[in-house]
UniProtKB/TrEMBL annotation:
UniProt cross-references to InterPro entries, sorted A to Z: DUF2231_TM
Keywords: Membrane, Transmembrane, Transmembrane helix
Pfam family, one: DUF2231
Domain of life: Bacteria
Transmembrane segments: 12-34, 46-69, 81-101, 107-130
Organism: Caldimonas brevitalea
Domain DUF2231, chain residue ranges per copy: 9-143
Key word Repeat present: no
The name this protein goes by in its record: Membrane protein
Keyword Repeat assigned: no
Length: 169
């Protein structure tokens, strides 16, 4: 099924998710740099990157939610979409609490704030894979003839995979 929300012919959600993913991942990188060298500037950068990433998540989420509601009920795509969206809500909460626990820059973050942001980044890797599964494997958001029940891309059954793609040509 094609995305219901498009901009210049492309799905809006897929265009917007790069911002929260990139900003939040970069915040974790700056947290690691802070841990390595103790430079308070790195902590400040991470603080503001998390704030921007959370704003990006709030902007991207409604478009993904709209697309999810259009997926047929009882399909693998609907289940994967629910895990993707629910997981991303948890990612946002982890980063929000991490941001809230951080003192106003330039002070460094508490260990608990760092643990939450690292956990959020780890979970974001899983939810990003799920989003890729929705788009790349299942065709959600890009193809009205999407195979909403295609097997997981982790399955190693080439005959089944080839039959799936042959039917899409």
């Amino acid at each position: 099924m094609e995305s219901r929300a498009k901009l210049l012919g492309h799905p809006v959600h897929q265009m917007l998710v790069v911002f929260p993913l990139g900003l939040l991942a970069t915040a974790v990188i700056f947290d690691v740099i802070f841990l390595a060298n103790g430079d308070p500037m790195m902590s400040s950068v991470a603080y503001w990157l998390i704030a921007a990433g959370l704003i990006g998540a709030v902007v991207a989420a409604p478009f993904g939610t709209r697309d999810w509601f259009a997926i047929p009920k009882g399909t693998r795509a609907k289940r994967i979409g629910a895990m993707h969206g629910g997981g991303n809500m948890i990612v946002a909460v982890l980063f929000l609490v991490s941001w809230w626990l951080r003192p106003e820059p330039p002070a460094g973050p508490a260990v608990s704030a760092l643990v939450l942001s690292f956990a959020g980044a780890a979970l974001a890797m899983v939810t990003a894979w799920l989003g890729g599964e929705l788009v790349d494997r299942l065709g959600i958001g890009v193809d009205d003839n999407a195979n909403v029940n295609a097997p997981s891309s982790l399955k190693r059954d080439p005959a089944r995979r080839d039959a799936h793609y042959a039917g899409q040509r």
